[in-house]
Structure formats: C-alpha cells, structure tokens
Amino acid sequence: MNTPEWLKPGIYGAVIGAVFVGVVGFSWGGWVTDGTASDRAMTMSRNDVVASMVPVCLDMARSDPARADKLATIRAASTYQRRDAIMTAGWATMPGTDAPDRDIAQACLKELDL
Prior knowledge:
mainly alpha
C-alpha cells in the first residue's frame, strides 16, 4: 500500500505518542499490570487477616495457665528465636488450624512487647 507522504509524520507521531503515554503511565501514572494488582491485593488481604488474628493470639496468651513459664521461655530466647518460641507455645495456632502461622506469631510478638 502506498501511503501519501503527508501522512507519514502523523503516523510516526501517533506511534511515538502511544509509546510515550505508555512509559509515562506505567512509570509515574500508577498504572500496573493485572499480575501486579493481584499480588498487591493478596498481600493487603494477608496483612489484614494477620492484623485481625493478633487479638486472638493475645487472648490465648492471656488465658494460658502456663503463661508465666512460656513468657520466661520466650524472653530467654534470642531475638531471632522468639517468633519460633511463640509458635511452640501454641499462641500462633489459630482455632480451626493445625499449624502455627509465622506472620501471626511475628505480629503477636510485636504486640507483646518482649
């Protein structure tokens, strides 16, 4: 197909403009792909679930008859092992689950101020 000579600058301008808009939109405009949006949504929902389960963990810690011993064990553990100590204490195992949750244990540890 033969395109008129006067049409070529318009076509080139449209293509360059489309590329420019895409680069600016994804760089500074806040546009994201479907995968990125999905990842962010999953992260936000996971954080909300963890935040909603921290009061359950704290309540389990308060009502535990062996609380003093378990707190002493957690305090005696190194900073890097305290999360595992809370998991071992059973406070990060939510009702209806079989295994403790690491994220809930970390958030619970932060709320316990140990």
